[in-house]
Design brief:
The protein is of the alpha+beta class. Helix content is about 55%, strand content about 10%. It has 14 helices and 7 strands. The strands form 2 sheets. It has a 5-stranded antiparallel sheet with strand order 4-3-7-6-5. Strand 5 and strand 6 form a beta hairpin. The longest helix has about 30 residues. The N terminus is likely disordered.
Amino acid sequence: MSEVINNREYRQKVLKELISELHRGKSVDEVKERFEKLIEGVSPTEISEMEHSLMMEGMPVEEVQRLCDVHAAVFKGSIEEIHRPQKPEDVPGHPVHTFKLENKKIESLIDKIKTDIEKFRSQDTRENIQNLRNDFEKLWEIDKHYLRKENLLFPFMEKYQITAPPKVMWGVDDEIRDAIKDVKALLTDYSSVNKEQLSDKAEETVVRVKEMIFKEENILFPMVLETLSEDEWLIIEEGSSEIGYCLLENVVKWKPVKINVEKKAEKEGEEPSNNGYIKFDAGIMSPDEINAVLNTLPLDMTFVDKDGIVKYFTQGKERIFARTKAIIGREVKNCHPPASVHIVEKIVEDLSSGKKDHEDFWIRMGDKFVYIRYFAVRNTKGEYLGTIEVTQDIKPIQDITGEKRLASS
């Protein structure tokens, strides 16, 4: 394991050196030759870590942004394909599927724009001017594509400490927006504009749009696909229609695979409650009382049944980790980032097989000290019924000192 870690660190060091050499003025070809000899493949996540490292060492965002075009050219064709048993981005309605669909539309529009630019260069008739103006009015719809990326996707990247790529990409998005606005303004007041300058500006703009499409599809999307959970993609998808789509009239609703837990319970012979009392090993309670009691506990609980389906979670006032009801009926592995799915699966496997009865973790989250515990839930016969996750901020408990007796309260 340590060898793998060391190789990874070395590769990142080399990658950082190559970017720094580009920054100091070396040509892309000079750097690319060394890159190809020393690096067999590099993941999008490593690119992110490298950029973050450069910024942490003091390189201004603007400098990293200046390098963005160059490093995209260096990495072109070298980014390893990330193999997954399933590709969510291939499912219509998934945010990445929609982003890619928009990119295809944008590329088709760019082909038309290039043709119209050539016609304009050859003859700046009123018709050719109007055609270009219409083209760039349509191209401005790219603002919706960028807004969804910046306001829905980037916050999740920042949640995972991926901060450099969003900053760099947002800056380039703004430059492209400005370029499109400039071309539109020049076309509106064409009488005072040089034809060649306008044509060059229009061509430069569509080239930048094409470069951004390359960066999205070869760096950004692979990076976020290996980081965000299905539940997080669902939140992005649900917020997308409010901003709107670029050059797309209809976008289908994404429906991740989901189990109807009530029908599943009925098939397993469980009867729905008639709102009467439920008898426990020690006492009885009504469904309302049970629900209220569980939501009052100063901790979060999530129950995953024996088949790995999320069946229930408490809804206390202050949750540690965000949950939405959309996760009910989903496979638990789809509710975690792909990078940590194997850990979740191992925990469930150990608990369900009887190898372990519980597994504990503890992490710091800002001013909280979060204690995360997974317990195997078994019936009186010892049969595995599922796994319950219990999460609690134990920082207030750690801070307790001395005594407080009932008599002193």
